[in-house]
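Why predict the complex rather than its parts? Because the way molecules touch one another can change local conformation, and only a joint prediction can capture that. The input here totals 897 residues.
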Amino acid sequence: MADTQLLLGLSFVLFALGLVGVMVRRNALVMLMCMELMLNAVILALVTFSLETATLSGAVLVFLIFVVAAAEIAIAIPIVLQLSRQRSSLDVEGYDRLKG
Amino acid sequence: MTIEQLLVYFFGACALLGGVLMLVARHPMRVALALISCMLSLAGIYAMLGVHVVAVFQVLIYVGAVMVFMVYVIMLLDVRDPSFLRRYSRVLLPGVVLGALLAGALGISAIRLGAAAIQPGASAAPSYLVQPFSVEFLREYWLHFELTSVLLVAAVVAAIAIIRSGRRSDG
Amino acid sequence: MKLLTVIVLLPLAGFLLNGLLGRRLGRTFVSVVGCGLPLLAFVATVKAVTLLQATGPDAALLEVAYRWASFGDRSFDVAFYFDRLTAVMTLIITGVGSLIHVYSTGYMKDDPGYARYFAYLNLFLFFMLTLVLGRSLLVCFVGWEGVGLASYLLIGFWFEDPAKAAAGKKAFITNRVGDAGFLLGLFLLYWALGTVNMDEINAAFAAPVAPAVSASLVGVLLFIGATGKSAQIPLHVWLPDAMAGPTPVSALIHAATMVTAGVYLVARLHGIYEHAPEASQVVAVIGVLTAFFAATVALVQTDIKKVLAYSTVSQLGLMFLALGVGAYGVAVFHVYTHAFFKACLFLGAGSVIHALGGEQDIRKMGGLWRRIPLTFGTFAVATAAIAGIPPLAGFFSKDEILWFSLASEHGGSPILWVLGSAASLMTSFYMFRLLWLTFLTPSRMSHETEHHVHESPFSMTGVLIVLAVLSAIGGFFELPHFLEPLLPIPAVLESLERYEHTLVYVAVAVALLGFVAATVMYRGGLARGEALAARFPRLHRLLDGKYYVDELYETVLYRPLHWISDRVFLGLGDRLLIDGSLHGLAALTRRASGRLSRVETGQLQWYVAMAVIGVVGCLVWVWRHG
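Output of the joint prediction:
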């Protein structure tokens, strides 16, 4: 008998935490993991809504998110690897070539 | 206050704790472990709510594939660079403030929308157990399933492209 | 067919042909077109005169070429008007003009800018014809400005020499100062009368109901314009400098035609001046003062062309004297005779300069009467004409001017006569001085120059002969009588009527006195003249420095204007305000963009923070509007 609001609240907090983590942490891999946290928060919200509206489409969308997250992490980590190899560091503060 | 509710609260607290630990831990491996625990807690919540399929796949794909890959990469790289010594970037304070603002804004939006309590473990709704869910999934949403395979092909192509460019820059 | 339009457009065609094609098609083409078209214009003018004579004494030919502009129910036309006054002027312009064109084929033979010269000369003829044939003051003003332009182009013909280019500029700018008066007069006339057609203006002033504008005011304003164009005091300073141009140009523009445009304007608008005694007095006084002072300056000049230039200014003064006392026809008569003998004098001077290979200083001439006899003969005839020796042309016109300056009811006075006669005396004196020193005294030429002295080709001497003959017999045609239907001869004071013949003898005596004095002074050469100059050094310096008018203008007008333009307008206005604001705007943009570009830090997390701000903003917006 969990309250929808509580679950949603948890989802929002986790999302905010993930976002803060992306903004705040300096390590590129930690940033990626915080983005995964954001995705998980979204999954929680979707499941909650799916249960509330008593349909399957929420859960199906969760499946698609799993696929996307897997594909994304499979590509994002090699990109970070290449990037870190150029700078020989995982510190995102050093990646400022777009400075204008 | 049934045992189910308590468990849900417990798992929720664990997820929250995992999230906070992610922001605080210094070693990326510890961050990864905090994330894993958070994901497992979330899987627990799904299981308590009766959405078994999602719970299982959360553990299988997310923890089993994604996080393993992440741990592997952490083990591969030397993570003791400047980001290890100084964890936080320049936007620490604005970031925290903005995160709080965002959470508040989202919460207020949710309150305005309103929501009813849901009954975990109810059976009138569609079943989220594995077999009925799968049947329903492939009957109604088979097109979405096929499209995800397209997405995976794109991911494979991208991976090959990265390998190639990596080889060129190495050579 | 539109005869008057054809007369005006023939020289324009010459300008276009010579200007565009002349350089490519060679000297012969340029000469044929350049001289032929003005000759055709002369023939057309003669035809127009015969048409006019057949119509009547005060008739006029009127042709409207096209409608220039129209606003509402008012309109301005380009129209040409041909009465007896116009006929006289047009005959002089096309006739003497054609002769000078023919002369130029010989004089400018070796000049590389041959085609350009004839193009400009034809352009000048076009504008001058527009000036005299125009019916309205607007068309006249187009011609007025145009001749100023042609004069500038021709004075500065050898523009590589900065002094010559500066002379052209000075002429043009001085003309423009006068044009301000012309324009103001024009505007006042249009505002009061609603028309700019000169015949209608004259009629309006003669009507029983006087127009709403003061005739004297308009008269003075238009006279200011005439002062600029006809080189009267105080705008006379450009004419001596204009001698920098080729000598045929000086003959055509600055003796025979352009400088008489002011005289033509006042004569044409006699209707205004007949009813403006104050303006007429101003005209007469300025005229006689110019005549007197220019003659005094000519006494000491040593450049052959400068003597003739000051002589022109002086003669123009006499013409304005005649206009000022109401003898409009007499003034035009003097324009007519002056065109002949002054052109002959200038062209003769050109022949002398040509013979001496460029020498213009009379102190280095002498003994030329045997070497270049034709030039000498024609020059002598013209000199006698300008001095006023009967029965040559100048005598008739000058005598009538002096008579009316004394006796006219319209403003004649003894003072005007005395000053006018003094100017005539000095004219005779300095012209014979010029004749003696240039031709008759023992030679003061350098050996080289003496070797080169040769008579000019027939294209030049032929023209000189024609003009000399005209100077001799031109006076017998009674021009004032011919113009009387249009320009009434003023009435004469009863008391002085019987002195008319006496004054004729006085005038002849004055001319002969000048001749004798010049002979006494200069028969043996420069010695006596220089001794006299040594005895009155300060007077000599004053005259030689042309009363320092140029220096006065430089100090009072030019330097303050230059200072204002440089410091105030250039320094403050242009550099500080305009450039400063533009540069300031650019600097402002640059600095602002510098500051704004700090948003692009290149830091990923900074961008994420920006995006989150946007998301929160969107959420807030959804609350308010959702």
